[in-house]
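Thread: "does anyone have the structure for this chain?"

Original post by V.I.:
We have the sequence but no experimental structure in hand. Need at least a predicted one for the grant figures.
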Amino acid sequence: MASTGTTGPCYPEGVSLSETVVHEADSPFGTVYVVDVGDQRTLRFDSPEGALQSSILKSDPLAVPTNYVRVATAGLALTEGRSRVLVVGLGGGVFPMLLHRLLPRRSRVDVVEINPVVVDVARRFFHVREDARLHISVEDGAHFMARQGPRYDLILLDAFWDHGTPDHMKESIFLENVRRRLEPGGVAVLNIALEEQWSVESRIETFAKAFDDCAMLRGASRYSNLILVGTQAPLPSEPVFWQQLWRLARELEFPVLMESVMTFERVKSPS
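Reply from O.Q.:
Generated one for you, tokens below.
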């Protein structure tokens, strides 16, 4: 598992790396681009200069160069079970493929992605492979969540357009359906990025209202996305969380978890 701990290339300040558009494809939701930047292969929407949606290293496809993915993985420290995980939003497939490698063989990872072109690109350019333990469904994540279906120990909400989360996945009814699809003791993990501060504050409040307890996780980089975790039962104290994270890192043989997460901050219950 050593390769999964790679944090990605570090380039000296001022060094400009050439960008190469490897693939461009129209889709029902805008143009999808695969852009290589040095050793890093990236997924972008709408333009080659669009916000980075996902990335891998060409020299080490098992690496996890995107910090928020490692921080989101820390949500597993708050679950009572790990037999079934749902990821809403495939991107380049880094998170589901990481879980596929780290979790026991009896575990299953389901992915819901609305854009069929993104699924094709993830398979062709980002080493995403389905098998008996990893399944991808092409449909709207909100529709998937609203139906009756299996419950999950962890649900990661990671669906984006180029400028943030689709509006219908910010609504309280969607988050209530997410809560309903959690196993007792399960955890919902929300990746917030590409949004203005006023919007972020609203997202935190809406998310916290849907769950009995909520906390914010932040990574080592000042550019890190904000990760929210929500549970149906009280979260542990901060010292206990760090103990649980340390045990998770050892259990998964993924030591970089301990250096990826910098803060654990409980969110006050909305009035």
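V.I.: this helps a lot. The helical segments are 67-73, 94-102, 116-125, 141-146, 172-180, 197-209, 238-252, 257-260.
O.Q.: and The first strand starts at residue 19 and ends at 25.
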